[in-house]
Amino acid sequence: xxxxxGTSFVVFTALKVVLFFVLLxxxxxxxxxxxxxxxxxxxxxxxxxxxxxxxxxxxxxDGLKFILKEETEPGxxxxxFFFLAPVLALVPATVLFAVLPFAAPLPTRWGLVxxxxxxxxxxxxxxxxxxxxxxxxxVMAGWASxxxxxxxxxxxxxxxxxxxxxxLAMSLVPVLMLVGNVAMPEIVSAQQRFAEGTGAYxxxxxxxxxxAGLIFVVSGVAETGRVPFDLPEAESELVGGFHTEYSAMKFxxxxxxxxxxxxxxxxxxxxxxxxxxxxxxxxxxxxxVLADGTVIGEPxxxxxxxxxxxxxxxxxxLVLFFMWLRWTIxxxxxxxLMDLGWKVFIPLLMGYIMLxxxxxxxxxxWGIPSGLKYSAALIxxxxxxxxxxxxxxxxxxxxxxxxxxxxxxxxxxxxxKRPVAxxxxx
Length: 426
Hints:
By secondary structure, this protein is mainly α. Helix content is 58%, strand content 2%. It is built from 14 helices and four strands.
């Protein structure tokens, strides 16, 4: 079966756009409900339980409240940018999903429908470009509000997102080195099991690229601005951060943008490191569409449904993991946040990229084709690197606690105490 072209392609693309983005907004809205339910479970309380069965209609009540509340605007705010900031916070996270493959191709009587809204050949570069736009909404909100708390939150957010965008992009360099292609469906296909030497490795990249996967997950959480990296908001320090002066639906758009970024990050981790829509330990879903239109494998509608379920389960599991993090770990100090990004992740990734490049060069020169043997060699190397990395981090030599500066190193003189004034003696 050949890929769809002509009028059928246009019609099915329009249907995918409408259906997919409606479902995305539904997932974003429902994620707020599950966030509060998980928080209630962790804190030994019920969470939403009054509006509708099991509190499911609480989401609709919140949306109605946002719409009906009075819009407020600071007197010294820049009206144009004050209005545009919530839009820039929400739109990049939603349009990013246009290039994400979320299921195996669907065979129809008009041709093969690929389960991706826009299969652009530079999908990876599109992801990096659109993901970097999120910082503009945060900075614009902080500056346009004409408030010191909002401005400080915008400055914190811009420094944080720019810092971790570098680590986020660098952690994907080994993925590109392994795949040799920037098309998103090719990244999924490379993690499936095809014939040796065809560019497929038979293993999810979280195993042969374990260190890069760990750094991508941490950097992704930092990009969402959630605990333990919620320094742009930091309610206990900045009242509410960059969106302090916002109310009604403008504030609701920031709220929805946060959860859209959360779902986007989970979907990206799934595609880059968890095999995308690939179902583990089953080769029936190994379907690949080559650049010339040739289809490898046997597409079927029930395979499309199964792979869509696989992608959804992986993404939702990561979303639940991020929510669990929010209600479990405390916030980083700002110096810890910046040190982790600039002094740990970037030097670590520079060395890791060179080491992985050397390992791939040696495996290629030894004539080992892409496949399970190739992946096993990289998995062994990454396990050793992970042991070294965890051994260093576990001893507090990378991210130091608040008491690290007060500890006296062996062989050094004790710190001098500040003299106490007479009126402080009591």
